[in-house]
């Protein structure tokens, strides 16, 4: 399984005299600013924020249906040997204590993809309800030039450089979903730029996350548009196209 808990941690991110424009996005990392960039996105949407006694930051949407928490400091669990950084949730009703679904991303996920996921979530009036099927996610990736997996073409797509994948498969341990049925599948995404060196990042969506929200994340992740970075991931640096400023 690609999200192997025994992978070693990815190498540190060397600083360069940037900023640079880089491609592909799925290997660009988070610029060491995943907390700040996503926090700015959420406050710009009018979400309320408060710190917790666990040294985490909780954000809640104005309608009370959606939440996002920076949980890196509490180190709750790992995906692919990487600590989870953000947990994103939705409820069917503002007064409900039950989270219908959860999404988790580690550090290293391009912040643009997480921000586009949250923008799509914020735009929904029913964030806990799905209206499209899983093909929506694959269509979003194929439209950006990703390739269907040879062995699993209806559930998995891979980046053209084969360094990242998005797949509908068994949910890892600790990923909670309100649907209690066993053996449910959820979307998982990961980048593995240097096999044997550890994953660069992981993202996991529980079974009830609406497919169109995953598609928003996937489409942004696979976008060919360059992104600006000052810090490049060490494990992916040799696979990035770097465009100097000016």
Q: Report the helical percentage.
A: 10-25%
End-to-end CA span: 43 Å
Q: In one word, what is the shape?
A: globular
Oligomer designation: single chain
Order of helices and strands: EHEEEEEEHHEEEEEHEE
Structural Rg: 17 Å
The number of distinct helices, counting runs of at least 4 residues, comes to 4
Question: Can you walk through the features of this model?
Answer:
This protein has 246 residues and is an alpha+beta fold. The protein is built from four helices and 14 strands. The protein has helices at residues 34-44, 111-123, 135-143, 211-221; strands at 15-23, 48-51, 57-60, 66-70, 78-79, 82-90, 101-106, 147-148, 156-158, 164-170, 185-191, 201-205, 227-231, 241-243. The N and C termini lie far apart (43 Å).
What is the element layout, followed by pairings?
Elements (H helix, E strand, L loop, with lengths): L14 E9 L10 H11 L3 E4 L5 E4 L5 E5 L7 E2 L2 E9 L10 E6 L4 H13 L11 H9 L3 E2 L7 E3 L5 E7 L14 E7 L9 E5 L5 H11 L5 E5 L9 E3 L3
Antiparallel strand pairs: 1-13, 1-14, 2-3, 3-4, 4-6, 5-6, 6-7, 7-12, 8-9, 9-10, 10-11, 11-12
Helix pairs in contact: 1-2, 2-4, 3-4
Quick overview of this protein structure:
This protein has 246 residues and is an alpha+beta fold. The chain contains four helices and 14 strands.
Notable traits:
single chain; 246 residues; alpha+beta; eleven-stranded antiparallel β-sheet; 4 helices; 14 strands; 18% helix; disordered N terminus
């Amino acid at each position: 399984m690609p999200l192997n808990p025994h992978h070693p941690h990815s190498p540190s991110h060397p600083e360069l005299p940037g900023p640079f424009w880089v491609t592909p996005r799925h290997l660009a990392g988070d610029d060491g600013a995943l907390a700040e960039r996503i926090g700015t996105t959420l406050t710009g949407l009018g979400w309320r924020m408060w710190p917790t006694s666990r040294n985490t930051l909780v954000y809640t949407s104005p309608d009370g249906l959606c939440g996002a928490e920076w949980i890196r400091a509490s180190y709750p669990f790992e995906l692919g040997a990487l600590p989870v950084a953000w947990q994103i949730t939705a409820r069917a009703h503002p007064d409900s204590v039950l989270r219908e679904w959860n999404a988790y991303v580690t550090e290293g996920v391009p912040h643009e993809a997480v921000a586009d996921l949250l923008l799509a979530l914020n735009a929904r009036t029913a964030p806990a309800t799905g209206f499209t099927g899983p093909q929506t996610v694959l269509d979003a990736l194929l439209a950006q030039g990703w390739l269907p997996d040879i062995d699993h073409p209806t559930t998995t797509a891979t980046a053209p450089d084969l360094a990242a994948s998005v797949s509908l498969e068994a949910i890892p341990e600790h990923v909670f979903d309100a649907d209690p049925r066993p053996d449910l599948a959820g979307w998982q995404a990961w980048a593995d730029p240097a096999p044997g060196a550890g994953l660069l990042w992981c993202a996991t969506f529980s079974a009830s996350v609406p497919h169109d929200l995953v598609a928003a994340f996937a489409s942004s992740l696979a976008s060919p548009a360059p992104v600006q970075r000052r810090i490049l991931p060490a494990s992916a640096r040799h696979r990035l196209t770097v465009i100097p400023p000016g």
